[in-house]
C-alpha cells in the first residue's frame, strides 16, 4: 500500500509546477506543495539507483545516486548566485555536507540492519572531504576580516577549485574501476534494465530540479514568517530540501536492507558536494552573477570537518549499528543548533 501511495504521489510534481507557474501562487502554499512533491521523487531516485546497483555494485550505485542527486543543488546554487545570495550558497554547501554525513548516514544506520559497510571506499571519500576543508581555509581565513565577497578572495579560490576538481576526478576514476572489477554477481531477475534505471534517474533529477526551484523561491517568505536567520535557512532548510531526493533514496535503500549502498550514497553525496559541487559552483558563478569565493565561516568549516571525523570513527570497524546511527543524528541536531545560534554575519 505504501509503495502505491508513493507512486501516486508523483502526481504532486506537475501539480506543484502548474500551481506555481500556471496560477502564480507563491509563499507558503507553494513551499508546502514543493516539499511534499520531493518525497515521492526521493523514492523514485532510490528505486532507480537500487536497480542500477544490481548491475554495477554498491560503490558505483552510490556514485550514480550522489551524482543525480547533486544536480538539483548545483542548479539551485547558481540561481541563488544570480539573485545575489552568496552567503546562502555557502551555507547550503555546508549544510549539505553535514546533513549527508550525520543525518542521512545516521538515519540509514538507525533504520537498516546491522551490516558490514565498505570501509575502504568510505574512508577514501571522507579523506576527500578533509582535503576540501583544509583547502577551503586558503580563501576563508582572510575573509574573516573585511569583505568576504571581495574579488581578491575569488582569485585565490580559482586554484583551490581547480585542485579539488582534479583530485576528485583522479580518485573517482580509480574508485569506480576498483568497484567495477570487484562486482561480478548477476542482477536479480526482477531488476530493471540499466537503460531504464538511468532514464528514470535522469527524468527524476530534472523533475527534482524544477520542484526545488519552486521551493527555494518561496524560502525567504517561509524563513521570515518563522523568524529564522538567512544562514540557518540556507544551512538547514535549503540543504535538506535541495538534497531530499538522494537523502530519501539512502533511507529507502537502508530500510530495504541494503546498508552498504545506503552508506555509499550518504558519504558519496557529502564528498561530491565538497570536492565537486562547491568548486564547480565557484568556477561557474562568473557566468550567472557575482563571482563566488569559497570563503566559509569558522562554524561552517568546523562542522564539515567535525562531521567527517565523526563518521570516520563510526565506520572504522566496518559495521554500522542503530546506536551509532542515533549518535550521528544527535550530532546533526547539535550542528543545526549551532547554525541557529550563529545566525548571520
Write up this protein.
This protein is an all-alpha fold and 345 residues long. Helix content is 82%, strand content 1%. It has 14 helices and 2 strands. The protein has a two-stranded antiparallel ribbon. Helix 2 packs antiparallel against helix 3 and helix 4 runs antiparallel to helix 5. The protein is globular. The model has no long low-confidence stretch (mean pLDDT 85).
From the 3D structure, determine the CATH topology: A middle domain of Talin 1
Low-confidence stretches: none
The main sheet comes to: 2 strands, antiparallel
* Measured distance between first and last alpha carbons: 47 Å
How does the helix and strand content classify structurally?
mainly alpha
Question: Widest sheet: strand order?
Answer: 1-2
- Number of beta-strand segments: 2
The top level CATH class name: Mainly Alpha
* Cα Rg: 19 Å
The number of helical runs is 14
Helix content: over 70%
Annotated CATH architecture: Up-down Bundle
**Shape type:** globular
Per CATH, the superfamily is NCX, central ion-binding region
Mean pLDDT over the full residue set: 85
Amino acid at each position: 500500500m505504501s509503495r502505491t501511495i508513493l507512486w501516486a504521489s508523483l502526481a504532486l510534481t506537475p501539480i506543484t509546477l502548474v500551481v506555481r507557474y500556471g496560477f502564480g501562487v507563491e509563499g507558503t502554499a507553494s513551499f508546502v506543495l514543493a516539499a511534499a512533491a520531493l518525497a515521492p521523487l526521493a523514492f523514485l531516485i532510490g528505486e532507480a539507483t537500487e536497480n542500477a546497483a544490481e548491475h554495477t555494485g554498491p560503490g558505483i550505485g552510490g556514485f550514480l545516486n550522489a551524482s543525480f542527486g547533486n544536480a538539483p543543488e548545483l542548479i539551485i546554487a547558481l540561481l541563488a548566485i544570480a539573485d545575489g545570495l552568496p552567503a546562502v550558497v555557502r551555507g547550503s554547501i555546508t549544510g549539505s555536507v553535514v546533513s549527508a554525513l550525520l543525518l542521512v548516514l545516521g538515519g540509514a544506520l538507525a533504520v537498516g540492519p546491522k551490516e558490514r559497510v565498505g570501509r575502504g571506499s568510505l574512508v577514501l571519500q571522507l579523506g576527500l572531504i578533509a582535503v576540501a576543508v583544509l583547502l577551503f581555509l586558503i580563501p576563508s581565513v582572510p575573509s574573516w576580516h573585511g569583505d568576504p565577497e571581495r574579488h581578491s578572495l575569488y582569485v585565490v579560490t580559482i586554484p583551490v577549485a581547480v585542485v579539488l576538481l582534479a583530485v576528485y576526478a583522479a580518485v573517482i576514476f580509480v574508485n569506480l574501476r576498483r568497484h567495477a572489477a570487484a562486482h561480478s554477481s548477476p542482477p536479480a531477475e526482477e531488476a530493471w534494465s540499466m537503460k531504464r534505471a538511468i532514464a528514470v534517474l535522469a527524468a527524476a533529477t530534472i523533475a527534482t530540479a524544477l520542484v526545488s526551484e519552486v521551493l527555494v523561491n518561496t524560502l525567504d517568505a517561509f524563513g521570515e514568517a518563522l523568524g529564522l536567520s538567512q544562514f540557518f535557512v540556507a544551512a538547514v532548510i535549503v540543504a535538506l530540501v535541495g538534497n531530499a531526493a538522494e537523502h530519501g533514496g539512502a533511507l529507502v535503500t537502508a530500510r530495504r536492507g541494503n546498508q552498504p549502498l545506503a552508506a555509499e550514497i550518504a558519504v558519496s553525496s557529502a564528498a561530491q558536494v565538497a570536492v565537486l559541487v562547491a568548486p564547480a559552483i565557484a568556477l561557474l558563478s562568473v557566468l550567472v552573477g557575482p563571482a563566488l569565493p569559497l570563503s566559509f565561516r569558522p562554524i561552517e568549516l568546523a562542522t564539515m570537518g567535525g562531521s567527517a571525523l565523526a563518521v570516520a570513527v563510526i565506520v572504522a570497524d566496518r559495521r554500522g549499528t542503530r546506536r551509532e546511527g542515533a549518535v550521528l543524528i544527535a550530532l546533526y541536531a547539535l550542528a543545526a543548533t549551532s547554525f541557529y545560534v550563529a545566525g548571520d554575519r
